[in-house]
Design goal:
8 strands, six-stranded parallel beta sheet, globular, alpha/beta, two-stranded antiparallel sheet
Length: about 230
């Protein structure tokens, strides 16, 4: 599949969740969520991380840019939904390993996954607070020993991607970085209601709920200008 470059960030133009799932089943690798902010604020380091891996369209801004580039049927695939689609699709055939969040969050996540997906086989998990090289090495050794088919890491970018790349050097699997998805899944953080998500206004809902985000989201005006002037 040919990737599309958006400000030097290479994105796979998946046209459905099914196409993405089929792709990662045959092309093991690290899924990296791409949104307007990652495209706008791309640096040589973040571009390199994304372009080494499987960047997918996570937000409406990235989807609009892909459509502008000619991928008329490009779709937005929110990462906080995708990981659960991966669980549902592969639970009967793949084993899972989870890393991230506080101890109570990762334990609640594992408990809820077992309740919602009785067939899931979680071979290991740990919180996201890796304090030294010894703990990092122990985590990698455990993953290598247990050989999970899918590894989820929820630690925020680019920290989670760098850890997944280090693990991948020793064990190949389907990897996905999840940011704060465990908090959303366990109800500790509220996601925007469905109407806002369906109308690509999730960013506006979050701004209303958290006005301090204005300093961060004002930069999206520049991204909108790039879209209007076709600078991507």
């Amino acid at each position: 599949m040919e990737r599309i470059s958006l400000n030097g960030v290479e994105v796979y133009p998946f046209t459905s969740e099914t196409q993405l799932l089929e792709f990662v089943d045959t092309h093991k690798g690290i899924l990296v969520a791409i949104n307007a902010e990652k495209i706008l604020h791309a640096t040589p380091e973040t571009r390199a991380i994304i372009n080494r891996n499987i960047g997918y369209c996570d937000g409406a801004g990235a989807m609009m840019a892909l459509k502008q580039k000619g991928v008329k049927d490009a779709v937005k695939i929110p990462g906080c939904e995708l990981w659960l689609k991966i669980v549902g699709h592969f639970a009967g055939t793949h084993t899972f390993y989870l890393v991230g969040g506080k101890q109570e969050v990762i334990e609640a996540t594992v408990e809820k996954l077992h309740a919602e997906f009785p067939e899931i086989d979680i071979v290991g998990y740990r919180n996201g607070y890796i304090n030294n090289d010894e703990e990092r090495a122990a985590l990698i050794d455990d993953i290598v020993a247990k050989k999970p088919g899918v590894v989820f890491v929820a630690m925020g970018s680019p920290k989670q991607e760098l850890l997944m790349e280090e693990i991948q050097e020793h064990h190949n699997a389907i990897f996905q970085g999840l940011g704060g998805s465990f908090d959303v899944y366990t109800g500790r953080v509220e996601r925007a209601p469905k109407w806002w998500v369906d109308h690509n206004l999730e960013f506006a809902y979050r701004l209303i709920r958290e006005p301090r985000r204005i300093k961060r989201q004002v930069h999206l005006l520049k991204y909108a200008w790039w879209l209007m002037t076709k600078k991507l």
